[in-house]
TrEMBL record:
InterPro entries assigned to the protein according to its UniProt record, in alphabetical order: K_uptake_TrkA, NAD(P)-bd_dom_sf, RCK_C, RCK_C_sf, RCK_N, Trk_Ktr_HKT_K-transport
Entry keyword set: Ion transport, NAD, Potassium, Potassium transport, Transport
Organism lineage string: Bacteria, Pseudomonadati, Bacteroidota, Bacteroidia, Bacteroidales
Organism: Prevotella melaninogenica
Alphabetized PANTHER family for the sequence: POTASSIUM CHANNEL PROTEIN 2-RELATED-RELATED, TRK SYSTEM POTASSIUM UPTAKE PROTEIN TRKA
Stored SUPFAM superfamilies: NAD(P)-binding Rossmann-fold domains (SSF51735), TrkA C-terminal domain-like (SSF116726)
Keyword Mitochondrion carried by entry: no
Gene: trkA
Listed name of the protein: Trk system potassium uptake protein TrkA
Lineage top rank: taxon: Bacteria
Pfam families given in the database record: TrkA_C, TrkA_N
Ranges where the RCK C-terminal domain occurs: 141-223, 366-446
Length: 446
């Protein structure tokens, strides 16, 4: 598959690295040679010093034979223009990063498609949705819903109160049990488990279940003592924070601590009297105590500095906050944040890349998510009639190593998958992939 990426910035370079692991034919374009220098020496891809709105440059890059053209520079207008030009020159699919939330409204999507922009991403909204999902369940690190919760994936850190530790999964998660364990993160190792594997203290475990059994999962992992989030403090009042606060459920109260006085004025205009905006430093323990940190169930650090966010979350935890969320854009710090037990980690690059990644696939893919903590992908595939995956029961499919099927949705009803399950055309099938090219997996569904 031939892919051109315009913009060797945060999202573009991360996406290039993510795709290069699957041996795709990738060209990364940027006007700044310094942006290209490091990545070209570390990864198997071509770089091109050129603007993506340069017609000759696009032709030289082979845009007429391109399957996917991705424009993710910081310049919204340039991204849209580059996609329009690439489409006219023959690119099959295009996607542009934007900074205007109006552009992603459903009513405007057809306008952009007619222009030649097949999809639009606004990373701040993707991040805000992830934050809200994390806040709704204080005892969960990560939540991912399939078909409005018909199936639910929960990433949970196991503590001493968990009652299913040190037992073979075949004894605690059989065909008749209401959950499957689909992946385990243990120290720096990712495990796609088999029946003889066990859950151990401090594992980060990914459960697949259905919505009605969430309380059951909560009980067996020993998280019933976690109080639900009602009061939230946000540190940093940027676009992501503003969007997340707007999306908060009505029962949650929010305070925003922002260091820049001018930005505080903007936030006050956005929220009127609905939310309290405080000018100050979210790392100031005295300020946090004054603003009721001891009666706060969640602390969300969204400044542009990963170290600041990590330290602020550690401070909040020391002051008694159970749920912390940190924006960590620098991947060098993701492992550090995870090791320090920060909680939910937000990375806009990974979220945007996951959204774009599904456009690579020829199968009917409704959703793709890159699970940064375990370096794995989870995707929702829909098989066509007579697809390979529909010809045998699951245990006879000889799935590639590192692939497991977590569950499926059929006629709106979520169900877990066992070895005797017969997958049918039209099912929405949730597949976990670790160290596997998803292009190989999709062949089972087409």
């Amino acid at each position: 598959m031939k892919i051109i990426i315009s913009g060797a910035y945060a999202i573009g370079t991360f996406l290039a690295k993510l795709l290069s692991r699957n041996m795709q034919d990738i060209i990364l374009m940027d006007e700044n040679p310094e942006n290209l220098e490091k990545i070209s020496s570390e990864y198997d891809l071509l770089t091109m010093e050129c603007s993506a709105t340069n017609i000759k440059g696009l032709k030289d890059a082979g845009v007429e034979h391109t399957d996917l053209f991705i424009a993710v520079t910081p310049n919204e207008s340039a991204n849209i223009a580059a996609c329009v030009m690439a489409h006219q020159l023959g690119a099959k699919k295009t996607v542009a990063r934007v900074d205007n939330s109006e552009y992603i409204e459903e009513s405007n999507k057809e306008l952009f498609r007619k222009m030649g922009v097949d999809d639009i991403i606004y990373p701040e909204i993707l991040a805000a949705k992830d934050i809200i999902n994390g806040l709704k369940m204080s005892w969960v690190r990560q939540r991912w819903d399939v078909h409005d919760g018909a199936l639910v994936m929960l990433g949970i850190k196991l503590r001493e109160t968990c009652e299913i530790l040190n037992q073979p999964l075949k004894d605690i998660s059989g065909p008749d049990d209401p959950y499957h364990v689909v992946a385990i993160k243990r120290n720096d190792e990712t495990i796609i488990p088999g029946g003889n594997d066990t859950l151990q203290l401090y594992d980060l475990v990914y459960f697949m279940t259905t919505k009605q059994y969430i309380p059951y999962i909560r009980r067996i992992v020993g998280k019933e003592q976690y109080v639900d989030v009602q009061n939230v403090i946000f540190m940093g009042g940027g676009k992501t924070a503003a969007r997340a606060v707007k999306m908060l459920p009505e029962y949650m109260n929010a305070k925003i601590i922002e260091l820049n006085p001018a930005r505080c004025e903007v936030l006050n205009d956005i929220f009127s009297e609905d939310r309290l905006v405080i000018n100050g430093d979210g790392r100031d323990i005295g300020l946090l105590q004054e603003e009721g940190i001891r009666h706060t169930q969640a602390f969300v650090a969204l400044t542009s500095n990963a170290e600041t966010n990590i330290l602020a979350c550690l401070t909040a935890k020391r002051l008694g906050v159970r749920k912390t969320v940190a924006s960590v854009e620098n991947f060098d710090y993701v492992g550090t944040a995870d090791g320090l037990d920060i909680g939910t980690i937000i990375n806009k690059k990974a979220l945007a890349a996951s959204h774009i990644y599904q456009m690579m696939l020829d199968a009917n893919v409704a959703n793709v998510k890159f699970l940064m903590s375990i370096n794995a992908d989870v995707a929702e595939f829909v098989p066509v009639p007579d697809a390979k995956i529909t010809r045998k029961v699951v245990r006879e499919l000889n799935l590639p190593k590192g692939v497991t099927i977590g569950g499926l949705v059929r006629n709106g009803e979520g169900m877990l998958v066992s070895g005797n399950t017969q997958i049918e055309a039209g099912d929405s099938v949730v597949v976990f992939c670790y160290n596997v090219d998803m292009k190989k997996v999709e062949k089972l569904f087409i």
